[in-house]
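=== RUN LOG ===
request id: a7f3
mode: sequence -> structure
chains: 1
length: 465
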Amino acid sequence: MSVLVNREKELEVLEQEYRKPGFRLVVVYGRRRVGKTYLLRWFCRGRPCIYYVAAELPYSVLSKEFSASVHEALGVPISGDVVEVLEALAKLYKGKRLAVVLDEFQYLVGADSSLPSRLMRSIDLVLSGSDLFLVLCGSSVSFFEKKLLGYRAPLHGRRTAQIRLRPMLFWETWGFNHELGPVDAALLYGVAGGTPAYLSLVSPRPSAGKFIGELTRPGSPLLEEPVLLLRQELREPRTYLAILRALAEGRTEPSEAAQVAGVDPRSIGKYVDVLEELDIVERTRPLGKRRPVRLRFRDNFFRFWFSFILPARSLIEAGASEKVRETIHERIDAYMGKAFEETILPQIAAKMIEAGIIPVKPIEAGPWWHRGTEIDLVLRDTGRATAFIEAKWTRLSKADARRLLHRLEEKAARSGLASPQNYYLVVAREIDEPVLEEYHMAIDLAWLHEQGVIKPARVLEHHSH
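=== RESULT ===
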């Protein structure tokens, strides 16, 4: 039995496209390991399908391989260039649906840069009159967004649907292990992030402990993963690695990160653009202002790797994994404070709005800070209502919770973001007793789970016969 965790929206897009008559061109992309191939192979089950994965080889070799894939799947001896083979399939399957997936499409284009233009011509003259369901898939985000989907790209306007597959959210990773409680599920997301391939390395039933064990094992594929991912996307990953290390050390201002990384502060923006494009970091500004800008991690695996694994790699390879794990265990709560505040809290807040617990339409949302005063998250329906929210990765007594709510109200009054109606919320890892009042709430992950606000994602199962 194989399972698919919470990719229902993406599956539905593929199903809807497949059910529509005539030629369809679907583009599926996202950085490596987010589950593109798994999703598409799942979709292709039980359907007439040719699935071809390209590699960094000469175009003549790729064309022969693609022809061989067609022969193996259909028993039909078709040969030629990739476009010629697609046109032959379109004629052969006239009036019948056939799915063709060209995975790692960027390698095909790398081997023959004329391929997108020739494919565009073929779509216009031949394929558009067929019933071919063509999927172009790949893991080079910059290639797909600039060279394939960009306004000036040959295939712009030819696609009928596109899916950018992103890393999973907190409750989606929880779907990999329904047996975890909400605190342990948050801890798993805090160290592993939302990349399915990383979680599957410690399946079945991944946990933070198992993941840290794998990550600190000499020879683990995860030991070099961030370097490999950046190397695939970028010509010179060294500068990006230096910027991410500076960010993990707490250098959140772009100019400060640039200085520590040895980068000209005037050029830091172009590096951050790429890291944002890859869902690794994001820029944040105080709500309602354009400056100052701070950087923060969007991807917790990268946050964890740069915080703990990069500084300890030589120790791990020297066999001192147990010592590294002890250090992680001592510092994990301090580390989780930021992960909880920056990645999990905004996701939980979205679920609380959905459930009607936060009665604010978030026209504006984001953190706020000014001269040493900070509020983790502000949700604002300008001129009507504002919710001020703090995250605490700790255990709170009811008295602690009330003190925090009082302090939050004072900070909110100084922020200039107050509305006619204001709400104050503290979301803690654990709380002795929740505070549940109309405008003041202090709750924890267990309460949110009990109320059904957060729960593990649904899992689709496939039983092979």
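=== NOTES ===
Residues 170-341 form a domain with the Arc Repressor Mutant, subunit A fold (CATH 1.10.10.10).
The longest strand covers residues 385-396.
=== END ===
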